[in-house]
Design brief:
Length: about 220
């Protein structure tokens, strides 16, 4: 996530929007109100689509437009300005900081968008995440991933500890190997490993510890 966000307000003009997108080399930007709550998003596509629509209308209605211009000269009225409030796509698709990378990637693919505003619990803008940000996650080192996976496993209070289990990471693929105690929920451990950013696969090689399995005493004993 990038915390320094280029943003616009509903009254930001078409020309200023074009300048912001061009100068910052971005494909879109959020539109926020006075409380920094996200109202919508303006993209390069929104701007170019509007201009293209104007061109199509002009080519097909020249005769009508000429008549309208004559009327306008007699009763001049200024056309409403093109602003972010009129151009933006709404409602905005947003995510929260706790969203998993894989979930954000799915939203981007489903919605065919490259940037997502990140908002807090009150829907105030706190950052923006892009496809490039998501790719950076997969540049994490195997050691960084291993440490976070180990912490996630320990946080579940399982009986799978350093003495009984080993965690290895190679090229983002996590392998959990060892003997799991009778109280260990191996499915939950695998899920916890998958939730770590940068993980591309999880191999479960845990085996059950039979030493502590309770035996049923024979009848009459």
């Amino acid at each position: 996530m990038t915390s320094e966000v280029v943003q616009a307000h509903p009254d930001t003009s078409f020309k200023e929007l074009a300048r912001l997108l061009t100068s910052h080399r971005i494909s879109g930007l959020p539109v926020v109100d006075d409380d920094d709550k996200v109202m919508g998003v303006v993209s390069q596509t929104d701007l170019t689509r509007r201009q293209a629509a104007r061109g199509r209308a002009a080519s097909g209605r020249d005769r009508v437009l000429r008549a309208l211009r004559r009327i306008a000269r007699a009763h001049p009225t200024a056309p409403p300005p093109l602003t972010a409030g009129r151009l933006m796509s709404t409602p905005a698709v947003t995510v929260h900081p706790e969203h998993r990378v894989v979930d954000v990637a799915r939203i981007m693919e489903r919605r065919h968008i490259d940037r997502l505003p990140v908002v807090d619990e009150e829907d105030r803008l706190i950052g923006i995440t892009t496809r490039r940000d998501l790719l950076r996650v997969f540049l994490r080192t195997d050691e960084e991933i291993r440490e976070e996976v180990a912490g996630a496993v320990r946080s579940r209070g399982s009986a799978c500890d350093a003495d009984t289990c080993t965690i290895d990471v190679r090229e983002g693929i996590v392998t959990i190997e060892g003997v799991a105690g009778p109280q260990t929920d191996t499915t939950a451990l695998v899920r916890a490993a998958w939730r770590v950013d940068g993980v591309v696969g999880v191999v479960n090689r845990l085996t059950a510890d039979r030493r502590h399995a309770s035996s049923v005493p024979p009848s009459g004993a």
